[in-house]
Amino acid sequence: MSEQHYPLVPAQPSYPEVEERVLARWRKDGTFRRSVEARPEGPEEYVFYDGPPFANGMPHFGHLLTGYVKDIVPRYQTMRGHRVERRFGWDCHGLPAEMETEKELGVSGRAAIIEYGIDRFNDYCRKSVYNYTEQWQEIVHRSARWVDFKNDYKTMDLSYMESILWGFKTLHEKGLLYESFRVMPYSWAAQTPLSNFETRLDDSYRERTDPAITVRFELVPESGEPPTRVLAWTTTPWTLPSNLALAVGPEIDYAILEGNGERLILGAALVPKYESELEGYEPVGMRKGRDLVGRRYEPLFPYFSDVEKAFRIVGAEFVDVEEGTGVVHMAPGFGEDDMDVCRAEGIPEVVPVDDAGNFTAEVVDYAGQHVFDANKPIIQDLKARGAVLRHESYVHNYPHCWRTDEPLIYRAMNSWYVKVTDIRERMVELNQQINWIPGHVKDGIFGNWLAGARDWSISRNRFWGAPIPVWKSDDPKFPRMDVYGSLDELERDFGVRPDDLHRPAIDELVRPNPDDPSGKAMMRRIPDVLDCWFESGSMFYAQNHYPFEKREWFEEHFPADFIVEYVAQTRGWFYNMMVLSTALFDRPPFLNCICHGVAMAEDGKKLSKRLRNYPEPTEVFKTHGSDALRWYLVASPLLKGGDLKIEIDGKPIGDVVRNVLNPLWSAWYFFSLYANADGVVASETREASGVLDRYVLAKTRELVDRATEAMDAYDIAGACQAFLAFLDALNNWYIRRSRPRFWKSEQDADKQAAYDTLYTALTTACRVAAPLLPLTTDEIHQGLCGGESVHLRDWPDAEALPQDAELVADMDRVREICSAAFAMRRGEKVRVRQPLASLTIAGAEMNRLVPYVDLIEDEVNVKEVRLSPEITDFADFRLQVNARALGPRLGKDTKEVIAASKQGQWKRDGDGVEVAGHRLEEGEYELKLVPKGDLACHALPSGDTVLVLDFELTEKLVREGLARDVIRAVQQCRRDAELNVSDPIVLSLKLPDELRAAVSDFRESVAEATLAERIDLDEGLLGEDVFRQTTRVGSHDVEVALQKAKAA
RNA sequence: AGGCGGAUGGCUCAGGAGCAGAGCGCCGGUCUGAUAUGCCGGAGGUCGGGGGUGCAAUUCCCUCUCCGCCCA
Fold it and tell me: In angstroms, rounded to a whole number, what is the distance separating the alpha carbons of residues A920 and A686?
């Protein structure tokens, strides 16, 4: 046995085992750190920002997908020579943590938390952040994602939070913050306002049945007028006690109806909808809305009857007659439009609802009742007073809180806002500097969202978050507001340097108001904390404690070269970073951004832990491995922004093993098997002489070119596609056709060339696929290159490999010819082992096929390949018009030309052709070959080549075919006997006469093919170590006996 | 409600104004001294409904219906 220079590998490995092995090696060797540190710091660095996930559960396929992309691109850029630091980030603050803590501690609501103690509450939140970090690290590690956990950032770190203070103060100084009392979506269950985009992030709109009532409002009578009532419609009866006005559309027609001793006013277009209620009422007039404006009415409830300027009909453009009565009841404390209209009219708002959604004492009759519970008694009261014309149920989509699932209300609140509208235009401009993948996101989903951006509410009336660094005087006689942007500033004014910026410690910083000479007024922090989105959107500066540390580092690492998250983050993280980056630095926060689609469960629904509608990622790791999952996800439509249904049994992931991992491994197995058998050491080569070697090197070059182009365009699926095409050429053509060169016993230059070429193709392929299959390729690469990790290598240099487009085109044509020949054999039901006399190839440029004649003869198993330029002997031309080129020129006649060409009604006309009275020039048509009907003929799909296969069999050909059948039987026997591929044997065959004659005729080739030193056809093989087998060849039984030949 | 995406073979999805594609599944065949988890071939689709623009629409426009997603 020769010396072995490569590991012996199994034909089919357990990929999960391979992966565990590679992971252990990485850990032991510190491969990740080494790969980063091997690249220089400085301007050549490639900057990646990791979006912080909120880890309140185990990662699912969606997280993994993002993680894979977060790994692939940095690995690629690292191989391209760039240093890529990868810090993991954790999103720690905000409602998700608070809600979880409320549930686990059994305290619910602001009051309960304050009673429980903000310090204890926040301590629990702080701990809960760590609940899943370990499992996350484990899964991220197992998925072969390289990311730095040790040096991670957390949004709750003191340094991070100090940067947040800086960001807030800087916005304030730039005049981009304001405080305002406005109507906002409010979660009474979470006891916090939500920003407008939070109400759109989750699928928060969902069906809800509410009461809808049509209410009579009694007008203050004008002289001589019978009792007159205006009808208004609402689905929120609980806002009626806060009603302060009624709105009509100035241009809308309102009908006046009379009956039952009263007059009713409602939108004329809506009268038919109230047919049954209005029976007995007669129309007595019609008024435009503007003629109703200014009329006073009686308050429905007494609670706010003294509010100035209230209880009038006002005009509002937004009123329509789509629904209701064409008259809108206005409660300016609970509706955005209502507040706008009423403020314009000088009507103040009233908000008699507390933080928990209960009526306050102002509304005496319902005080303490939750607003939704109060709907019922309010309706009953109104009915008792005869104020309700109709009471119905109304099913509509209604916004719900994304954390608590409870319905939101709209409520006027005090909140801090970022003046996004001031920088909106600039964001739209800066967005043009960003390369979005897929491209339509830029001016589609993201661009549109930016263009319609609204001011961002960033204060939360909660506990676990970065504090709003605003201190106000507690005495309105000495108004003063201080905004702090650093620990230094806090220390300067309060005399202590906080080591924790969380509540309640931060609230304890109090000092006398310097503007109050008596010293009694105190400066106190406003109790709100920041929206946690403000914090994650600040990561690009806060993760490195900007501007307090590493300022230069920041300058060099901003904006990011690359980020990736799923597409909905166009409303979340992408957007918030854009706002803050534009506001603070007037630059885009990132330059390339992949938005991937949504991984869904097999049932087409979103992945749901509760429904368990998806397999555990860890199970997939155990069965198919991480590389297969990685490939499955990133080669899918997900990266083009599409959604993907993940099958629960993971079958498509198994397909990846079969279609990607196995072919790659098979090539590696083949190499190691024969290289070890021959004791060969292969090395990389840049040139070759044989057509097969030159072909596969050119294919390798093509792989590098295509993959580079794809990866540079962030088209990961495209890189996968290129790799698959290469694997096919390598396995099913190069290796398949080159096998005899590896088998032969001479250790000559041709054999070495074959090894070197295969070695080059394999090592290059591993490097190209390293980001896509980091574990499997590393195992193979280490085997090929003496233990060197593929991830420490550079991306292959395409220029080092020969480019030969002509050779590739010719060889691909040859492959097509062979494929077509096999199809013809199948048509005639003639097995490939049966040699045929000849294959005639007719078509253009036949001379280019000359170097491949032997190869075709061998592959197709024919004695002779004839190349013929006489195409018309075998085939006719069919005219195929190029409608795309012709259409613009011929217009209406195009159809006729197409029809005529299909019927063969055309003739050649010099350089062109004539069809239906038109002359077609070159480029406007193509001539395709169609075999003549009576020949065993086959045309290539390209239409430029036809094949004729001679199926006439001579006695000799038949015998040769039979001999090959016997060879096949012997080879099977060798394999069943578990012989080594290079073991010589002694062979004995017991054959029927026909086969015996065939083997006699072709004794030499049988012996050569089966490595038989001796073939015995008469006496049979006797002895201990004889392997015997009876198999069927055609319709005959054949007895094969063989024995490993004794070493000479 | 809104924003966005989607509807193409049994399934998962590409494509894109000019003879409808891939993978899987199915059916049939078959090479093999690396790989039958391979290779070759085949069947299978009036490209969701309706309207419009065009010489030409599955593709562009309008509309309807249905589905999906919305802190990865």
Answer: 46
